[in-house]
Amino acid sequence: MTSDDELFQRLRPLLAERLFVKIDEVQPQSRLIDDLQVDSLDFVDLQFALEETFGVRFGHGEFFEPTPKWVNKDGTLKASAVDHLSVMMPDLRSLAEEGPVSVVTFFKRVSVETLVRLIRHQRERDAQTSEESAS
Asked: What's the CA gap between 89 and 16, in Å, rounded?
C-alpha cells in the first residue's frame, strides 16, 4: 500500500501544474480555495485528473459534490456527511460539535492533505470491492 507521503509526492506536481502555482506553494496544509485559489471548475478538473493519475473512481457525491445526500436544505452538512467526510478531514467532527457546518465552511477547509486522504480512502475502497467481486 502506498503511504500518504508517497501519494503527496505524486499529487504535488499534478496540483502545481493544473492550478498554475509553484510546486513549493503546494504543501499538505495548503487549503485548496484560500491558498491555491481553486474554483468550482478546478474541482471538476481535479476529480478527473485524480481518477486518471491514481486509478480511482469517484461515484456521484463522492468528490466533494454538495448533493442532497450530504447537504440539508439550509446549506449545512448532514450528520451522515460529517461522519463520511471525517475520514478525509478529521477536524470536521469537532467543528460540527460547535454547530452546523455550512458547505462554504467545509469547502474552505479542504486541503491538499484532505485530497491525499481521499485518494487513499478511494484506493482502499476500490481494492476491497475488487476482492469482494473476486470471491
From this structure: 22
CA distances to 33, 36, 78 from 29, in Å: 12, 11, 25
Per-residue model confidence as pLDDT tens digits over 14-61: 999 999 999 999 999 999 999 999 998 898 899 999 999 999 988 777
Nine-digit cell string for 119: 485518494
Burial class (CB in 10 A: 0-12, 13-18, 19+), 20: exposed
In eight-state DSSP terms, residue 21 is -
How far apart CA 19 and CA 79 sit, in angstroms, is 32
Interatomic CA distance for residues 7 and 126, integer angstroms: 16
C-alpha angle with apex 91: 38 to 97, nearest 5 degrees? Answer: 120
What's the confidence (pLDDT) of residue 135? 67
| Predicted TM-score of the model (pTM) | 0.88
Asked if 19 and 38 count as a contact pair (C-beta separation under 8 A), the reply is yes
Q: What is the largest CA-CA distance in the chain?
A: 46
